Amino acid sequence: MDFLLSVIGFAVDLGNVWRFPYICYQNGGGAFLIPYALMALFGGVPLFYMELALGQFHRTGAIPIWKRICPIFKGIGFAICIIGLYVSFYYNTIIAWALYYFYSSFSGTLPWASCDNPWNTPDCTNYFGRSNVTWTNFSRSPAEEFYTRKVLEIQKSRGLYDVGGIHWQLLLCLFLIFTIVYFSLWKGVKTSGKVVWVTATLPYVVLLVLLVRGVTLPGAWRGVVFYLCPDWGKLLSTAVWVDAAAQIFFSLGPGFGVLLALASYNHFHNNCYRDALVTSAVNCLTSFLSGFVIFTVLGYMAEMRDVEVEDVARDKGPSLLFITYPEAIANMVGSTFFAILFFLMMITLGLDSTFGGLEAVITAVMDEYPQVLAGRRELFVLGLITVCFLGSLSTLTYGGAYVVKLLEEFGAGCSILAVVLLETIAVSWFYGIQRFSHDLKAMLGFPPGLFWKVCWVAISPALLAVSLDPN
Fold first, then answer.
1. CA–CA separation, 63 and 366 (whole Å)
2. How far is 439 from 224, CA to CA, in rounded Å?
3. Of all helices (H) and strands (E), which one includes residue 109?
4. d(Cα 411, Cα 404) in Å, to the nearest integer?
5. CA dist 344 → 100, 144, 232, 262, 447 (Å)
6. CA separation (Å) from 181 to 185, 348, 388?
7. Domains of the chain
8. Tens digit of each residue's pLDDT (9 = 90 or more) over 226-236
């Protein structure tokens, strides 16, 4: 159960809350579920299964495992660790933003609910539900100004070329985040496996509470209709299928080395086939559920503003999590309670993925250099956390949002898809599909069916190749 919760906690992250709902409505609403399901069936789940099986059979991390599969591909293991470091440099900063919001939520009136604060400008316009307020191209909502001018203080930066000094309050938040991560990982999966009992289950409780609150809001049905209304014509666009493939690969997370690392601690005869199906299904269903949580609130906002849902749902990414949704919460009854719940959910979702990402690096390096690191896990984890903290300092500057965008776009992005493609080719074509099938039979007592073999050899690599070059 520790293993299942760890894998679910890693796979279900902040992207499930904002990226899937946005991509779904952007690419045909309910019609998008067809390419999404097909890409999951023929691409995401087979690769998820493959990584769990590799980790469990060889019982080692992402670097030394290639000595047993195909040594010439050992660079894949190092690439996985480097990508893991890049991701840790910016991903934990997003959690620190959520922690800042969480702390700020403990007040009678949420600080992003009005324009009467020191950080607000004359352009701040609180127009939510007010018909007598004029909105212009220069207007900014209180939630937007709180995010940009108070949390990020981006006005003190002139861009990526001049990011300015460090925001000390975010520095404290990030230090606290990395402290939690260190004491969750320093003893190994025995400690992190217990922590995920809270961090992996709490988001589901919060999602259900927010869903119940969302469907009771006026105009919620408008958001649901907009979210799921099928546009069948979109299915004729290649870009929709590419988006579906990219979403399922990033969502399930093969290629980050996490599945290899976590599965390497399993018993040899553990049923990883069942685990792959269960955790993949939970991940996809969570994405679908998150869409209802987000779009019921966006429908409510559209109703209150007397605009179309499309005008409210235009933004994605951090702006959806830190501007649009908080703005809606600020105008609900019981706003403080729901703000605390929402940002607590974001923190736990982020921590789960951080545990998995760093455990992949820790397991890979310690298994590669056991003669140096054996018995020194606590010191190694401390050194790794220190490197990640120092690497994150640039994202804590006044222009840190630009650095986060840079790392998010180029630190992982296509590189992780390339790693998964090479990994699939190495296992299926060089190590050999028959040898891999024999390994699975030794573990599970039965070989993989024809469907899985065809996906590993041909279909999944083809989908990855297309995702790498959408043009």
1. 9
2. 46
3. none
4. 10
5. 11, 20, 37, 25, 43
6. 6, 11, 11
7. 2-468 (1.20.1740)
8. 888 888 888 88
